[in-house]
Amino acid sequence: MGEAKKRKAAAANKSATLLEHFAAANTPGALTVYALECDDLLRLFASAAAGNETNAILTRLVVDWAKMVVCSKRGSGPLCINPECDHEFAASGEFPAAVVIALPFAKAEGLGSISGVCLKCAKAAGGGEGLLALGIRSYRRIWPDCREIKEGHA
Predict the structure, then answer these.
(1) pLDDT tens-digit map of 96-108
(2) pTM (2 decimals)?
(3) Which of 50, 67, 105, 117 fits 98 for a cystine, CB–CB 3.0-4.6 Å?
(4) Residue 100 · residue 81 · CB < 8 Å
């Protein structure tokens, strides 16, 4: 994604905090990680409806994940992204306070990873950067070499 598109996407959805990460040090598999507090989802949906491509992909992932939660029975729903938390999201329980979403840098249609963050863990993370840090800790369990790419150092 070009710098102009990145600035436009960030401006269109100020609540989405953006970081880029490599899945492994020597692979071209960069991921873009977003942390969205659920209070900001209407802004995300409106931006997607207004034509923002990235936010349209994020919206589809959030809606698909929410449908999966609603259809989940107690005991088979997704868990909070915090590996130390056993909070389950299911139709009969509370929805997340935030979500962490990882998209391939190339934004291949249909691909992405989304996890909920329960209210307790979201409060402990402190929002924005703390939610991203929580997501990165979780992703590092899968991709131990996951690292942040600082602006201009790709």
Answers:
(1) 999 999 887 665 5
(2) 0.73
(3) 117
(4) yes
